[in-house]
Structure formats: C-alpha cells, structure tokens
Design brief:
Blueprint lengths: L1 H13 L1 H4 L13 H21 L6 H33 L4 H4 L11 H15 L2 H8 L8 H19 L5 H23 L7 H28 L6 H42 L1
C-alpha cells in the first residue's frame, strides 16, 4: 500500500515536470491572450457554422464508438486531476488558510497545483469535442445556450486562475473535476448503451458545486478583508459572476426538465386512474 501511495505521489506531485512547472505568459503553450481569444472564436465560429450546415448524422455505431472513447478520456483525465489536485494542494500548502487565500503578491503561478490548473485549462479545450459530437449525432435540439456558453467561458475562467494566481481555485479544481468524473461516467455508460438511473444526480451535483463555491468564497473574502489580502481578486470576481450565471441557468434547466417530466408522469397517472 505504501508502495502504491509513494508512486502515486511521485507521478502526480513530485515528478520534476510537475514540481518545476511555471506559468510564463508568452513562453508556456497557450498562455497568450491571443491564443485564448482565437481558441474561443474558433469554437464559436465552428459551432455556428456546423449548426447551420445541417450535416448528416454519423452512423449510430460509429458515433457511439467515438463518444465512448472521448468520454473515457475525459473521465480518466478528470479523475487524475481530482486526485492530483488534492495531493498537490496538501503537499504545497504551508497552512490550511492557503487553500482558500493565496497571499497577495507572494504566490507566483508555479508548482504542482498550478500544473494541474494548466492541465485543467487545456482539458476544457478538449471538451469542445462534446459540442461536435452533439452536432454530428443529429441532436441539434440538445445544443442549448447553456452548453455553448459554459464551454466557451469556462476556458476564460481557467486562464484567469493561472494568469492572476487566483485564490480558491484549488477547491474549484478538485470539486469540478470530481463532478466531471461522475458526469462523464454517466455519458460513457450512455454511449455504451446503458443509461443509468442517476442522471438527475449529475445535475444536482453540478448545482451543488456552485452553491458550495459561494459558501467557501465567503471564507475567502473573510480572509481577504481581515488580513493582508488574497491573490487574484479580479480573477475571482470573474469566476464568481460566471458561477452565478451558470447556477441560474442550471436551476432553470433543472426546473424545466424535471418539472416537465413530473407533469407528464402525473398526467399519465391520471389517465391510468380514468381508464
């Protein structure tokens, strides 16, 4: 057990690539504002173009195969980021307060936890494939504003984590990666032809993580205003506004989706009683 634990810690925290990581604008791949802007514009442009092209859907067998491979990749990546982010935070923090509040002007974007923030940032670009699979699957009705908005703006949020050494992102990284592990496990099973019963649980967990983020943000603000200040407050303001908008959209989705199902079930039960 100790052998497994030590090897896990080495490959997720102590490996030289991880330990010596440093986010350097202009040097680290993907760190320039130009890259960020072009990435998002390309995603939005391709999504809009493919949406209006009305391409014929892929054969179901091929689509399931590609979807399963993609979902498995993101599932494993999310699990690794959740574990790596947790171990790196515990290893790198000088005290528990650090998890919530990086000391202002004393936290360069370097070390294990910033390495996993960088991996998280790049993984959000890989998740653009989600949109492509929806379009190629012929399920245009599933391509909601929430889906496109979330995929585009979350990349900006992750960029600010790194560029501003944003306080509180270790908590956000671990919680989001954990929720995505559950979510892509659901998607993987669906792609394999087994639709689990816990779809609603995924949505509830997504809403729960936003509520949790606001709760821990209160603690971070307490540290910020009662101490010497926390790093990356402008990044946090963007993050908070983005999370608030997502929470509102997810609640609206949750209400419409499951309320509609409940009404259908009630109508069906009424019909059974009348028959």
């Amino acid at each position: 057990m100790d052998f497994i634990s030590s090897n896990l810690h080495y490959w997720l925290v102590d490996h030289p690539t991880i330990t010596h990581f440093e986010w350097s604008p202009g040097n680290t791949w993907g760190s320039s504002p130009t890259f960020l802007a072009l990435t998002i514009l390309t995603y939005l442009s391709l999504t809009l173009s493919l949406y209006h092209l009305h391409l014929p859907p892929l054969p179901p067998t091929l689509l399931r195969l590609i979807s399963a491979a993609h979902n498995l990749l993101i599932l494993l990546l999310s699990l690794i980021m959740a574990v790596g982010g947790s171990l790196s935070t515990l290893s790198q923090m000088p005290h528990h307060r650090w998890i919530f509040c990086f000391p202002r002007n004393q936290t360069p974007p370097s070390g294990p936890i910033f390495f996993w923030a960088y991996v998280f940032y790049l993984s959000k670009i890989v998740e653009f494939v989600d949109t492509l699979l929806i379009i190629l699957g012929g399920s245009i009705r599933r391509l909601s504003f929430l889906h496109v908005y979330h995929h585009a703006v979350v990349v900006v949020m992750c960029y600010f984590w790194l560029s501003t050494s944003q306080s509180l992102f270790p908590v956000a990284l671990v919680t989001n990666a954990s929720v995505h592990t559950l979510m892509y496990a659901y998607y993987l099973l669906c792609a394999m032809g087994r639709r689990p019963w816990w779809k609603r649980l995924v949505t509830d967990c997504q809403i729960g993580q936003f509520v949790f983020s606001f709760a821990v943000s209160g603690l971070m603000l307490y540290y910020h205003f009662t101490g010497l200040g926390c790093s990356g407050m402008w990044g946090w303001c963007f993050n908070a506004a983005f999370n608030a908008s997502l929470l509102a959209l997810f609640i609206d989705f949750h209400t419409k989706n499951y309320a509609r199902r409940k009404r259908r079930k009630d109508d069906h039960d009424d019909e059974d009683k009348r028959s």
